[in-house]
Amino acid sequence: MIDSNFIKNSKLSIPNVSRETLDELNNYSLSIIKKNKEINLISSSTEKSINTRHIIDSAQIIDFINKNDVKVCTDLGSGAGLPGIVLAILMKPKKPEFKVIFYESYKL
User: Fold this and answer.
1) Each residue of 33-45: pLDDT tens digit?
2) N-to-C CA span, the chain
3) What is d(CA 55, CA 29) in angstroms, rounded to the nearest whole number?
4) Which of 5, 53, 69, 85 would suit a FRET pair with 36, their CA atoms being 20 to 30 Å apart?
5) Each residue's pLDDT tens digit, 3-25
């Protein structure tokens, strides 16, 4: 579970992350784990380390997005929505105009 020390204890420098944002990231992690029982979104061996293995890993490019005039991010082969959804959650309060476009292969 992501707690209030989630961002503080990570190596990321994400200033002013609200409790609401942390709650959204936590809910997202929980939804991945729940859905992972039906379809393989992430390796079951990484479920217990979802925060460090997937959420923090996905958030690593946040500084690049913050420091540059990036308005659109494309997530190719998004699968479980990583990193796109994590970035969208983190950017929502910072840049409301920020958009993430997801692409996933589709087999008939």
Assistant:
1) 999 999 999 999 9
2) 36
3) 8
4) 5
5) 445 555 554 444 567 878 888 99
What is the residue extent of each domain of the chain?
19-103
Closest CA to 69 of 98, 96, 101, 102: 98
CB 53 within 8 A of CB 46: yes
SS3 assignment, position 38: coil
Whether residue 53 contacts residue 68, with contact meaning beta carbons closer than 8 Å, is answered with no
The identity of residue 107, as a single letter, is K
Helices and strands, number each (H, E), in the chain: 5, 2
Q: How many residues does the chain have?
A: 108
The DSSP secondary structure of 10-28, one letter per residue, reads SS---TT--HHHHHHHHHH
| Contact of 81 with 58, CB cutoff 8 Å | no
Residue 67 near residue 94 (C-beta atoms within 8 A) = no
Provide the whole-model pTM.
Answer: 0.81
